[in-house]
Known about the structure:
This protein is α+β, with helices and mostly antiparallel strands. It has 2 domains: about 5-160, Sandwich (Jelly Rolls), CATH 2.60.120; about 180-305, Beta Barrel (Cyclophilin). The chain contains 5 helices and 20 strands. The radius of gyration is 20 Å and the shape is elongated.
Amino acid sequence: MNNYFKVLRPGINSTFQDLGRFGLQHLGxxxxxxxxxxxxxxxxxxxxxxxxxxxxxxxxxxxxIELIGETVLVAISGEVNFxxxxxxxxxxxxxxxxxxIISNEDxxxxxxTINSVYGYFSIFGGFKIEEVxxxxxxxxxxxxxxxxxxxxxxxxxxxxxxxxxxxNLKKIQYNFDKDNIIRVMKGLQADYFSKKSQKDFFxxxxxxxxxTDRMGMRLEGQKLENLVNKNIKSxxxxxxxxxIPGDGQPIILLSDHPTIGGYPKIANVITADYDKLVQKTPGxxxxxxxxxxxxxxxxxxxxxxxx
Length: 307
């Protein structure tokens, strides 16, 4: 018997992701991968998968899907509002961060994320999706990854690996970090900016704008004055780099960032605060806090203990 989910509504930016596709940036292919690693790994833990197993990532609104096949163990992680619609039409409010069982012709309706952007859907045994260069992450702009490198569409079929374990229910309690202070280290071109602008960047508020996606997050706030050069020779970029283009407004580069760039970088978000950052919705006010390498390394150790 074929086991799959039929996509009745694709949701907003629903793609397959894992922890990333590494070692190809010199070829112009960014690592990509899930936006919020802790929430992604939680979805896999809930169903007993290895934490790197491919999952379905959605933003703001997830898909409406119908199970065609045998009973399965699934989970949705994040701050998510969703319903389980039984075959007989009964609607049950779902609980995120808990695994649950669904049966043939049941539907899952992922209505929205709550004061956050990304959530994840995992299934015990994993989805039946092909790796590209060692990863199932989807990089839509390059058309790389499962589902022909594209987002979910209506009437797509999501096949999965069938396994016999269906009753090992789990619940994981963890709280989203609602703190709006994002810790950063100085960027390579921090000294391009006036002393006042450097001080402003670390003391003034910035607002997350609607011009935000998996590639980057545009901010709005105190304009930063570049005294040296508004462009530099293109150089390699890392996730979390904060570029300042000619208009003086920061852009934080996220998981689908370009591999090189020519704007000066004033700072870089530390790894431990990246998940928190990407869950900030448009309109959120954030502040940057400058930290040194020692603080960043200690924060990273605290971060990895959560996995």
